């Protein structure tokens, strides 16, 4: 009984420690890749390959470089209507992501901008927030 | 105290494992099987809601008669699939969540059997209000499907589609709370020439889709044997 309560106390302590520490050392290593896997991969492919002529890929995509400044708002608000990626026209609906913070959008886009054949300039969180301001999409976080 | 806990936990665990086993068994007895233990014959799946016509009539109901329209504006019915096996799923063109992944997996199955005219594909839209014939045709062509006779993208009134979804052992319903407005599962059903479901697979899980690719030849073999018996 006593051993059990000590054990329980230890468990609670460990849990509190984890919560407390996560405030200092966030588990945000590779956050961009994780966010991509959770929010983007189902449509854009687990390797950024897209889906035939239905959904554009983000891997080695000229659009990602050419529209760099528009991407934060595109992720935040989604998009509708035709667009051309690597010379192919697509026309699908992309849902917006009001659930992501500015810093999450930053990490997500930095992952895309530097992965799978993309070698583009990453964003700072401040820059992302400024770019999101254009579509009233910044949550300041 | 601890023993009690572990005992209870043990029971719970056992119950869960049994429950899971039953659950999986309901879908497909070969869920954990691989190619090495490929069954000779696929099970007949489905629900028995119709009144038995005789004491021997215990098989699940057949897929009911249906009448749909495909991306070429052709009417398709059960007769369209006569003598064939087919794989079916439910989607909608603007679906932002599971459909692209699901359709890319079904495309993988299609490509594995694109030389075999005895294997057909049937995708039902669950958003007929938006997915008009031109929208379906555009979707099919963008996915790379030029031949509507091999992979039908079909529409029908909501009630028809939702009733068929139940028959194919998948879930589809209107749900305004989810992105896109419809809740549906990514289930693929494999149907034989007797209009019976012979396998259901989670279209979001590549390993399940691999199992479908392994099951289709098993069913084709049974169908070919059946034809031989019939013509003898």
UniProtKB/TrEMBL annotation, chain B:
Leader sequence segment: none
Molecular function (Gene Ontology), one example: metal ion binding
UniProt: Cu cation binding residues: 95, 99, 184
Pfam families: SCO1-SenC
Domain named Thioredoxin: residues: 57-221
InterPro entries: SCO1/SenC, Thioredoxin-like_sf, Thioredoxin_domain
Cross-referenced CDD domains: SCO
Metal-binding as UniProt keyword: yes
PROSITE patterns, alphabetized: THIOREDOXIN_2
Disulphide bonds in the chain: 95-99
UniProt key word Magnesium: no
Protein family according to the UniProt entry: Belongs to the SCO1/2 family.
Name this protein carries in UniProt: SCO family protein
Organism: Hymenobacter amundsenii
UniProt lineage: Bacteria, Pseudomonadati, Bacteroidota, Cytophagia, Cytophagales
């Amino acid at each position: 009984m006593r051993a059990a309560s000590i054990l329980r106390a230890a468990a609670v302590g460990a849990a509190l420690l984890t919560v407390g520490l996560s405030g200092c050392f966030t588990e945000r290593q590779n956050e961009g890749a994780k966010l991509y896997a959770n929010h983007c991969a189902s449509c854009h492919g687990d390797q950024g390959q897209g889906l035939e002529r239905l959904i554009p890929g983000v891997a080695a995509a000229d659009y990602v470089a050419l529209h760099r400044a528009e991407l934060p708002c595109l992720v935040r608000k989604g998009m509708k209507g035709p667009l051309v990626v690597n010379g192919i026209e697509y026309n699908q609906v992309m849902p917006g992501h009001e659930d992501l913070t500015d810093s999450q959008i930053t990490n997500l886009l930095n992952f895309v901008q530097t992965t799978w054949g993309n070698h583009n300039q990453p964003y700072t969180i401040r820059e992302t927030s400024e770019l999101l301001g254009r579509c009233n999409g910044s949550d300041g976080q | 105290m601890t023993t009690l806990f572990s005992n209870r936990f043990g029971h719970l665990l056992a119950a869960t494992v049994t429950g899971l086993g039953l659950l999986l068994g309901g879908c497909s007895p070969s869920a954990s099987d691989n190619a090495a233990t490929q069954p000779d014959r696929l099970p007949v799946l489905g629900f028995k809601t119709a009144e038995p016509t005789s004491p021997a009539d215990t098989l699940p109901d057949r897929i009911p008669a249906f009448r749909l329209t495909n991306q070429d504006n052709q009417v398709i019915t059960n007769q369209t699939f006569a003598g064939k096996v087919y794989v079916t799923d439910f989607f909608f063109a603007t679906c932002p969540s599971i459909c692209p992944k699901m359709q890319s997996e079904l495309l993988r199955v299609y490509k594995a059997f694109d030389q075999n005219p005895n294997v057909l594909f049937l995708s039902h839209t669950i958003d007929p209000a938006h997915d008009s014939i031109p929208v379906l045709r555009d979707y099919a062509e963008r996915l790379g499907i030029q031949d509507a006779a091999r992979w039908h993208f079909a529409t029908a009134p909501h009630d028809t589609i939702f009733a068929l979804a139940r028959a194919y052992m998948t879930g589809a319903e209107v749900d305004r709370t989810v992105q896109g407005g419809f809740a549906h599962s990514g289930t693929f059903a494999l149907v034989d020439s007797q209009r019976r479901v012979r396998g259901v697979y989670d279209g979001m899980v590549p390993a399940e889709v691999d199992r479908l690719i392994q099951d289709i030849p098993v069913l084709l073999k049974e169908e070919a044997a059946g034809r031989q018996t019939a013509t003898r």
